[in-house]
Amino acid sequence: MFFDRKLSVGPPFFNMAFTPFMLVLGLVLPVGAMMPWKRAEIKRAFYPLRYAFVLALAIAGLVWVMQTGRSILGPIGVFLAAWVVMGAIIDLASRTGRGGGRWGRLLRLPRADWGKMLSHSGLG
């Protein structure tokens, strides 16, 4: 019994569990990707992502206005997608450093960094 209802591990359980899990995962994924192992500070990881967060909110607001304010699920999905994709791009860009030669450093990044960027963008 779960919430006074029987649930199987099928569509009823999946529908109840998947959406909240993916919502939380989508919110923390870009911040977690920016955190260095064992030296992590949330403020330091979120700082480069602050403009991406605001832009993702603006895009979601635009979608809300374009759909005339009907359902909130569409704008939430668009926000999470934009947030995750922009977070992956910012993470990759932050690994190239500053100054000249960024393109060369970008091309010399390990395949694991490229794989992380592609997989996170694919989730978005």
Would you write up a description of this structure?
This protein is mainly alpha-helical and 124 residues long. It has one domain. The chain is 70% helix and 0% strand. It has helices at residues 11-34, 42-46, 50-66, 73-94, 102-107, 111-123. Helix 1 packs parallel to helix 4 (73-94), helix 3 (50-66) packs antiparallel against helix 4 and helix 4 (73-94) packs antiparallel against helix 6. The longest helix is centred in the first third of the chain and has 24 residues, at 11-34. It is globular, with a radius of gyration of 18 Å. It starts with 10 loop residues before the first helix and ends with a helix. The mean pLDDT is 82.
Structural class: mainly alpha
DSSP strand content: under 5%
How many strand units? 0
Low-confidence stretches: none
Number of domains: 1
Oligomeric state of this protein: single chain
General form: globular
Distance between the termini: 34 Å
Radius of gyration (CA) equals 18 Å
Compute the number of helices. Answer: 6
What is the H/E string? HHHHHH
Major sheet, described briefly?
none
Mean pLDDT: 82
Proportion of helical residues: over 70%
